[in-house]
Design goal:
This protein has helices spanning about 30-35, 50-60, 60-70, 80-90, 105-110, 120-135, 145-150, 160-165, 195-200; strands at about 20, 25-30, 40-45, 70-80, 95-100, 115, 170, 170-175, 180-185. The chain is α/β, with parallel strands linked by helices. The protein has a domain at about 20-110 and about 165-200: Glutaredoxin (3-Layer(aba) Sandwich), CATH 3.40.30.10. The strands form three sheets. A five-stranded mixed β-sheet has the order 5-4-3-8-9. The relative contact order is 0.22.
Length: about 200
């Protein structure tokens, strides 16, 4: 495999793509969406990731605020079109999401992978405990991650299990202007913790 490029930074052109829509309605192309206005691109992991699934639902209020201000949200999830459509028919998102059947698009954006370490597993367990508390749920010690993974009735498929078995994919935000140039980015950590709608809208 060739070395990863560096993630596009402010002033760089965002790599274009045309991918199947996760809801089954045609194709989503970054250039096409950008022609209508600026875009916040949300690069997610596979559907196995409960933090990604929860983040999609938590973006609903922000989605409405962004839409009113002329900023579109566009996601990419690592899943086959068939699996993505199966999931999003049951759990619709408030913004368009493209289905990437492999990690090629994430690699094009320079997003690295990491082998799960005991420290990463412990951090994920703590985040799962916090998320469950916010949902009014509790879990026996050491089982928060397992319970959170299927919260809300999520049923993993063999495809989800295969994606989980791979190294952890880094997630990211990229704010892309109408000209296709990156205005802001965050590739450093959990998505929801860095999103400041007021700051992003000020960049438009």
């Amino acid at each position: 495999m060739s070395p990863l490029p560096s993630p596009p930074g402010v002033g760089d052109r965002a790599p274009d793509f045309a991918l199947p829509a996760a809801d089954g309605s045609g194709t989503l192309a970054l250039a096409e969406v950008c022609r209508r206005g600026p875009v916040l691109l949300v690069m997610l992991r596979g559907l196995y990731c409960p933090f990604c699934r929860r983040h999609i639902s938590q973006l609903r209020p922000t989605c409405e605020a962004f839409r009113a201000a002329g900023l579109a949200l566009l996601g990419i999830v690592i899943a086959s079109p068939e699996r993505a459509q199966q999931y999003f028919r049951r759990f619709p998102a408030c913004f368009p999401i493209a289905a990437a059947p492999d990690r090629a698009m994430h690699r094009a954006y320079g997003l690295t992978e990491a082998v799960r370490t005991p420290e990463m597993r412990q951090s994920a367990e703590q985040r799962a405990e916090k998320a469950l508390r916010e949902m009014g749920l509790e879990a026996p010690a050491g089982q928060a991650g397992t319970i959170f993974a299927t919260a809300g009735g999520f049923e993993p498929t063999p495809e989800d299990d295969a994606e989980y078995a791979l190294p952890v994919q880094r997630m990211a935000y990229f704010l892309v202007g109408q000209d296709g140039v990156v205005r802001w980015t965050d590739v450093t950590g959990p998505l929801a913790e860095s999103l400041d709608p007021a700051k992003l809208l000020a960049l438009l």
